[in-house]
């Protein structure tokens, strides 16, 4: 089979998605374990932790929800806070919309469930998924695989909670994973600018509640990079 | 029930600009910013993790150790461009630091 044939065969995208997903799932495993451990050791309970992985599929929001539920917060407060923490998914969805435009209706309604930081980062820079069928195969494999691994690791964390020692190793895994995904974006000048501005604003706005600091950081980074790029385009060469 | 409501709200955030108000109908200025979203979001997530605690059950993260672990992770990410190696490096640095302490 030639390289072109291999690339266009259905198995090509599935194999590529599995290959891309493996290190990502491995990297995120400690974060999922942490969610299981957090649920099992709090009043929220192990079952709630696992259910949150199935329903929410977003680590930061899950940890926030479990903490609030364990503290006896009202349903309205939990829902509002989770929505704020997950507000960045709105931006990810806007960026991914061209890939969903020519997809079947079922896919456009159900497959966005897999819109989350790692899957967005996996497809953001890929130019080989323009064909709707190829994107669909890649997205379902990567997203479905990530969701399955995420739920399984959360359950494992809940089971192992009584024997796992208290360690910061679990908390450092998620930012390290995001760091690994960030580095390729730093090749471009606009990417570096967006990252630096977002990081500075995130530190300055860390005191804001419910993920608002992160949202402000992302917005500041995107706006600055967009304005800088516009100014560069207009300047005479 | 609370989790189900939170899940519906989250799914709304994920689908509204794909299914209900497709993003290609957004103003051109907004669409021009979307390619810069990934570096901004990822850098924001890393910086936020650096300055906040992530969870009550994981033990007390010593800031110095976390910074060192992420610095090593950044170095490994820059040199290897492999998604899993920086995580393993960061976890290894943290475990070694905790054992030595």
TrEMBL record, chain A:
The keyword Transmembrane applies. The chain crosses the membrane at residues 21-43, 63-91, 138-160, 166-183, 190-208. It is a multi-pass membrane protein. InterPro entries: Brnchd-chn_aa_trnsp_permease. Keywords: Cell membrane, Membrane, Transmembrane, Transmembrane helix, Transport. It is found in: Cell membrane. It comes from the Bacteria. Pfam families: AzlC. The keyword Transmembrane applies. PANTHER family: INNER MEMBRANE PROTEIN YGAZ (PTHR34979). Belongs to the AzlC family. This is 4-azaleucine resistance transporter AzlC. It comes from Actinomycetospora straminea.
TrEMBL record, chain B:
It comes from the Bacteria. The lineage of its organism: Bacteria, Bacillati, Actinomycetota, Actinomycetes, Pseudonocardiales. InterPro entries: Brnchd-chn_aa_trnsp_AzlD. This is Branched-subunit amino acid transport protein AzlD.
